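Exercise 7.
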Amino acid sequence: MRQNVGESDRILRGVLGVWLVAVAVSALRVGRRTTAALTGLAGLGLLQNAATGFCGGNRLFGIDTTRSDEVADDEETV
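Solution. The predicted structure, written as C-alpha cells, is:
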C-alpha cells in the first residue's frame, strides 16, 4: 500500500484518534456502550491511519495529502 496521508494530516489524525479513544473510555465508564463503541472504532481507525500513513477513504476518492506536504517543503527551500 502506497502512503496517501501526509505528515501534517497524520499528526492531526493521531491527535483526534487519541481524543476519541479517551471519549470512548469515558463513555464506557458511565454506561453509554453505543457511544463508547462508535467513538472507539472511529478513534482506532484514525490511529491506524496515522500509524500506517494510508487511508482507504482517501484512496477511494483519489485524495493524496502527501503531495501537498512535498510541495510546501519545496517552496520553503527556494
